[in-house]
Write a structure and sequence with these properties.
Length: 496
Amino acid sequence: MIELITNVNGAINGFVWGIPMLILLVGTGILMTVLTRVFQVSHIGYWMKHTLGSIFTDKHITAHTDANDWSISQFQSLCTALAATIGTGNIVGVASALIFGGPGAIFWMWIVAFFGMMTNYSENVLGIYYRRKNEKGEWCGGAMYYLRDGLGSKSGMKGIGTILAILFSIFCLLASFGIGNMSQINSIAGNMNAAFGIPNLVTGVVLMILAGLVIVGGIKRIASVTEKLVPFMAIFYVIGALVICIINIGNLPAAFAAIFKGAFAMKAVGGGIVGSGIKMAITWGMKRGVFSNEAGLGSSVMVHSSSNVKEPVRQGMWGIFEVFADTIVVCSLTALTVLTSGLIDLDTGAVLSESAGSALVGEAFATVFGSAGPAFIAIAILLFAFSTVLGWSHYGTIAFQYLFGSSASIIYRVIFIVFILCGATMSLDLAWDLSDTFNGLMAIPNLIGVLSLSPIVCKITKNYVDRHMRNMDTTPMLSFFQDIQSESSKDLNESD
């Protein structure tokens, strides 16, 4: 049975993650970058000030909502989204990209991130614009809503919008058990066993209990945990990686040279054929880049839509920062840590170690921290992957609620928690293949929605830029679906 599932999944995976799919993903990012006039660069000072900078200067960004308000703060929404994106892909995924795609894969990971910033931005803008409240008063938003209410509002597209919304919800539901659960838990269990000798089953039981205590509390409890966990784990890992890069600073120029040369096959990957080398670099770099930051999947928009923000563009800018922090910062540090540690031949791209996945990164840390290196990585993966499980539990909940109603969400949460135990004992290869497959299937309807609604994103962006950057007296754009909600009908000129 496992062999049959693997064969069928491999065929689907090859289809959804072929070159056309990668072109669609990157192409959407390129289009949104052009249509918004390279917003991620032209307004970099503005979005940095109103994301990272605002955490320290604007108390409204971090202020919690009251007990009767089911929305969460902008900072909590960012932390929950980062909890879901900063996971094993930042360690295991980057290591796999280096092994199979060579140093050049990192360049293509950067390319995916650069254009993915605007894909994620567009998703969040549409998510806030088309979100609505359920019977409990919780904000619900995501690709399913802008497919149904955005694409579906176009002439003759109601049926298509509805079908795509349902398909996205189904794919998201399945993906939550792959990328958001089993692959993450599998990595934790494997590393805890290798580093500390803890049996996989014991790890699975402990994590199942801990996750259950958080997940059953819903988005507010998840957000409360992630806003404390994410900053700590990110700083913890970044400091460790920076120490290694600083100690090996003499190798940094050669590492960057290997990345750029490998990207265009100026050096063959592992000594192989040049044409094959560039294909592997592009494919692995893009696949792991998308797996890491999830731009184009339509996943993180589901938690961003729960934010107490009123302006769609404000939350869109958090989407830009999310991709920047995940890939440009964390993934790059992982790659440079491995490349500067002498574990990869920077001339040929050949791996000089027999280690794979997180073990390769652990070996890189061991060159500086000794035997504590693998333990450091095991703890990092524990924090990264567990936070991803918490974030994705909310994504799956939103998809389940869309399909079956909010009152049935407890059923999904119980099943999700049980699957944590399955993930601890599952084959790692199968877990990763399932994750890649459902990622790709999620992306297809979501990207159709983003592309078809790109004029709306442009109008909302221009409206915001005119009002807040050019100080023009322009009426804020309100969605009909927001306007019918009592809180949404407030003046959007108020400070967020």
